[in-house]
User: What shape does this take?
Amino acid sequence: MLFNSWHFVAFILLVLSVASFLPRNKNPWKIFVIAASCYFYGQWSYLYLGLIFVTASIDFILARRLVGAMHPGRLLALSVVANLGVLAFFKYTNFLIQSANGVASSTGSSWALTPLDIILPVGISFYTFQNMSYTIDVYRGQLVARKSVIDYALFTTFFPQLLAGPVVRATEFFEQLDRPRPLDLRKIQHALILIAAGYVKKVVLADNLAVSVDEVFLAPANANGWDALLAVYAFAFQIYFDFSGYTDIAIGLALLLGFEFPKNFDYPYLATSCQEFWRRWHMTLSRWLRDYLYISLGGNRHGLTRTTAALMTTMILGGLWHGASWNFVIWGFLHGCYLAFERFASSKIKWWNSEVGPMIFIRWLITFHLICFAWIFFRAADFGTSIQILRKIGEIFTTRFDGEQSRALATLIVFLGGTHFAMRRLDIKNKLSRAGFWTFSAFITLMILLLIWFTPAKTVPFIYFQF
Amino acid sequence: MKAKTLLAFLIPRIAAVAFLLLILETAFRMDAWEPFAKPDSNAGMAIRVKKSVKALGPEKIDFVTIGDSRAVYGIDHERVAALAKSNGFTHIDAAIPGMHWMSAGLMLRWLKEQAPNLKGAVIATSVTAFNYNGNGDYELGIAVPLASLKDVNWMALHVPFERSNLATYGSYSTLFQYRADIADLLKHPTARIKNLARDRQALNGGAVLFQSQKISRNICTVPTDTIKSCAAAPLSDANMALINSCKSFITLSENQADFRQFDDSMKWPHLALVKKIRQKQLSSLGFATPPLVVLMPVPRVWRNELLPKGGEAWVHSILQPLADQGVIKLVDYTSFFDSYGDPECNAFWDLYHPNAYGQQKLTDSLLPIIENYLYKSSDPTKKY
Assistant: This one.
């Protein structure tokens, strides 16, 4: 069931209506939301819903046993191995088989393994990381293991964030679950604004940009240099609007059910460094990788070499988390290199961190283009396509910028970039949350009109659902 | 939070949003978008006819030709208009590419409301236009500028509501009907401004209602005996569109439908519906002279491979009873170019449309019929 489907709209109206009649924080409410979440996930696969419960049960039991255990580290290791084992089996088995076959064939060997017939469970990367955060937090003493299996099932299956985050930490979730969560009118208004804006970001902006992006990335040979360059810029905005749109809807829905989820995006393309980009892009994943991986690998406490190694490992694994493909490894590697270089530059080059206006602009321009460069590998189906796109972009020096479509797309990208900047400057989201009756009504009307007029014929699934 | 507080918050806001949407819906229903509509879009072409009729003076109109692109390219409208003029009548062309029975019905109704002296019509259709009741949601674009609230059922009958297809919502709401037009304006604003300015000049007192569209190329460079031979022909810039269109028809030709078993029972409800609605529509036009229904030429390969088997007989089973009752006059030019003296390929510019040569030949044959049937039997001085 996609967020951008009528089925989901009917589902959410029913869930919110019924949930509002049940007493919050009581078991009937929790059981109802768990049941709704199971139905939501079951629309995709009831079989894999079982998988969620199996991994969640392992984590729940192990976390309970961690308390006072003789060897808590072993129990934690068991939990990590179980979670990563399931993730690795479903996500990386065929990747490893194909890579091994590739190595074998490049050495002239006829040896080959047959790829397994595996369907990747939707949301597995997200709920695996969430479950791991629970056992790790319990192990670290930052969280008391839950006694209630209902609470834990709610945390694991909570539908607004089940498929693609935000990656909510167990501490954040349970801390809210344990206290009264009054829903005031300002929060409702804020939630409705987030949901409406989220749908517009996804359906109107991302899905329309997808048309131009797909045209180039699916058949780069037919594009000219400018088309290819514009498609890369367009993809940067497509993926932002797609994922942040989804996140806005998820956060809005969670808010209507009484949970305040952490922010996942904070105008990432305004970042003037890659480090800042990662503080603004998919913030909950960045935070997870920092707290549970980067710091565990030593973080920045052991000199430049260890820090660089930790950064590279974190970013490459972060890339691989997105998908089982060498292109995601390259994407992660590139970001690792960017971050490592920035660390080096900011410690060794005096003017690097200058706050003089033109320098800030130059840093922003470089950062934005480095990120766009990495997006090429993220979006392209394989390495060969990425190289083809890069070659095409190289042709811009010999190709005239022409074509009404290209001009329209370029205008749209400039417009979207400007909007990105203005939205932050003017703090529009927060102002709208406090807006009066008619401003709020006019905003919702405008969002509905945009959806009516600009919803493309083809429904595009959320990009991050495939991860 | 109490439910009462929540409802007190939500209900006025939902009402306000509904109110604002209603205002916009009303504005669109009152043709507020017409001045900005893309001239060559489906809606734009219908608007152009409306504007031209008003510029010409609707009271001057005696006869009209309506139909789809086969009528646009297949009939020399200038010659028809000249012949009408010599008989003391004004005969306009209101055919629009993509027009099907739903929008044709609305166009005739609109013209009858506007033109008090409208005496009769040439309805140029083809045997391909009776396979389905509607012809896709794109037709709503043509219908929008001609429709009013009372036409909702008529439009929904031809373009049924599909939950997953927002375009079909246009049968019920004008806000949905101009979706493509508004999106296009945003994508190409400067082109729209230029086109609108050019179109305003082109209206020129309704001259557009008497113009012919002529395309000179033919399809003789590609073998069109069968869809497969056409699809397999070597590609060149000149014939690429034709060959690609043949390629797109291969699956259809391999799965040719068969209408021969249709027996007026409810075995195929959609065909029964087509028969019922078309007969009812043609019987209730209410012109002084029953309309002249012309079945425009269809290439042989289309008739052999793409038209359902028994398709021509099926169309005749709808129209012939009406002709026999005198409700319509039927002229069947379906296979006109099989035996007009030249190879068929000389008369078409693609698999649908007659070219300038075909148009000339067809018009040569059609003019005397129009003159005898429509003009000679009418009195130019009589008010209807």
About this structure: Chain A has a mean pLDDT of 87.
